[in-house]
Write a structure and sequence with these properties.
Blueprint lengths: L1 H15 L11 H8 L2 H20 L4 H22 L1 E2 L2 E3 L6 E2 L2 H10 L18 H24 L2 H18 L2 H17 L2 H9 L2 E2 L9 E2 H19 L5 H25 L12 H13 L25 H18 L2
Antiparallel strand pairs: 1-2, 2-3, 4-5
């Protein structure tokens, strides 16, 4: 998240018209907030953050709303077509002519009976400007930041709301595995599970190993941690490895971890980290210096190499996404039988 912090700080410096990270803004609003109480300072920060969202992040929901409208209209047409299906054939509701495929029925309805099917809007797939690339990165990074915060706080409502945007993100970037996993997660919570199971699934998607507020991690991460510990136990046994020894080591892991944590708390000891401490401040300062003179924050500069960059939340291929959703809904329908 250091890169996102650098972008946000550079955007704030751009709005406050300062050149260095340690410079003091000269505006009257900053002086009043600096000398005011806590509420005035909070109001000033919120106003600055809102301006950054409007000018540099540019959160517009127009594309997502139009995408939702097009998918809804397409699903209504699919429902009408399914009412004409009888067994393995399709029968025209007007002249009762039989067809073996849905495509031929659609052509018949359009050419003979003048049925006007909805045509998806064809978006311009031109290259993005430096400003649009910056907006695309900040929108995606802010989604990741909010998702990480929702995971750490165990906020199931936010986790599943963000999953809907992530499905669209992976659909645009053609990451099939993650898109399928996220969609099935939403399907289980929305339709496949009972009300009680759905509630448990939503609010038990994270786990807290060591306690404390904001220390939750996803359940799959916890599984990876324990798999790594099991492998260490297996390697430590060497030639003495047997099924019973591995079973005993695995079953004793929770008790040993609890004893270790209790001993650490009672002695008030702290295990020193072997990792080199992070110097986030110096890294962010260097990145802000690079960003200030870049095309992302200077309107009169161009940048080379952005021809293939696509915006993750704009210009959706409605036909492709809708077809994939219909296929997954069919699979979910079979599982509910």
């Amino acid at each position: 998240m250091d890169v996102l912090d650098a972008y946000v700080i550079t955007a704030a410096m751009n709005l406050l018209e300062i050149e260095g990270v340690n410079d003091i803004p000269s505006g009257e609003a900053f002086a009043e907030a600096h000398n005011g109480d806590l509420d005035l300072k909070r109001s000033y920060i919120e106003k600055l953050a809102r301006t950054i969202l409007e000018k540099h992040v540019n959160l517009q929901d127009g594309d997502i709303i139009s995408f939702n409208d097009e998918v809804t209209e397409g699903e209504q047409e699919d429902t009408v077509i399914q009412t004409m299906k009888h067994g393995n054939t399709f029968s025209c509701v007007y002249c009762h002519k039989q067809y073996k495929s849905e495509g031929w029925l659609r052509r018949h309805l359009s050419s003979v009976h003048g049925y006007d099917f909805h045509q998806p809007i064809q978006h311009d797939q031109g290259s993005l400007s430096a400003q649009e690339v910056k907006e695309a990165f900040m929108q995606t990074a802010l989604l990741l930041l909010d998702d990480n915060d929702a995971m750490s706080m165990g906020d199931g409502e936010r986790i599943f709301r963000n999953a809907k945007f992530e499905v669209l993100l992976h659909a645009k970037t053609s990451h099939r595995k993650y898109r399928l996993w996220l969609w099935r997660m939403l399907a289980y919570e929305t339709a496949l599970l009972s009300a009680r199971q759905s509630y448990e699934y939503k609010w038990n998607s994270v786990v807290n190993i060591n306690g404390g507020i904001g220390n939750n991690i996803p359940c799959d991460n916890m599984l990876e941690i324990y798999v790594h510990k099991v492998k260490d136990k297996i390697r430590a046994q060497g030639a003495n490895l047997t099924y019973q020894s591995v079973r005993m080591a695995v079953l004793s892991m929770p008790s040993l971890d609890a004893m270790k944590q209790n001993l650490t708390n009672e002695t008030e000891s702290r295990i020193k980290s072997r990792k080199k401490p992070k110097t986030r401040a110096s890294d962010i300062k260097v990145m802000t210096q690079q960003l200030q003179g870049s095309a992302f924050f200077c309107q009169n500069k161009n940048i080379v190499g952005l021809q293939r960059v696509q915006h993750p939340f704009q210009n959706f291929d409605v036909t492709k996404v809708k077809g994939w959703l219909v296929k997954q809904k069919g699979r979910a329908f079979l599982e509910m039988q």
